[in-house]
């Protein structure tokens, strides 16, 4: 009786081993799961066209005045100097269109009108044993067109500092020019017609942008602007037959500008698209070995 029970138990264990063996073999034969595919590179969002407008004020100045006498053979007297150079502050307003290439680089083309900055300087020269003085003044205005590039340095709490530069052209005009004599030259008076001059312009700037919304931004910045040079028309003197028909070239016209502007990004400035997820792993087909 005991022997028959042992035989029955042995047969049961043998049957269980034969049933479980294929499963063990299958588990051993399975290949390890393949590595997941690499995640796609992050998409840099923010590219797109934008419109801008700016207003500001500039502390303007010029460095040099060159005098050219229009009468053949006429020369400037020894001791001739130009002093007291000064220029009134300018106001300006402009607009432009630009493109945000990525989160850090953008560029735009702008045009602006600058006015309100009259020029003043004094000529001093020996005359009749004394000193002749001519006070000169004229209205200065300019239209400046620039191609600008900017580097945005990152955004914190909706604030984005930036640096930039630009190059372009300045269309400068001197008008309402007057040359008034004083000292031993008292009584002399001259005027010159308006004169337009085109000159190279360049700028360097820095500022900060505040994101009011993803599409609407406020820009506050400083700019150093060089507008090149401007010229006057020939001065025609009143009651002076010896008038030299002088013209003047005002050089190194610069301005330290403070400006505020608005930028509007055209189109959507929504969040970045969701990254692609790796596909779910599917095991290989069941393979059994006998």
From TrEMBL:
Domain Outer membrane protein beta-barrel: 57-237
Signal peptide start and end residues: 1-27
A GO-annotated cellular component: cell outer membrane
Pfam family, one: OMP_b-brl
Location relative to the cell: Cell outer membrane
InterPro entries: Beta-barrel_OMP, OMP-like, OMP/PagP_B-barrel
Membrane listed as a keyword: yes
Alphabetical keyword list: Cell outer membrane, Membrane, Signal
Domain of life per record: Bacteria
Family: Belongs to the Omp25/RopB family.
Family matches, as PANTHER family: BLL7405 PROTEIN
Designated name of the protein: Opacity protein-like surface antigen
Organism: Methylobacterium brachythecii
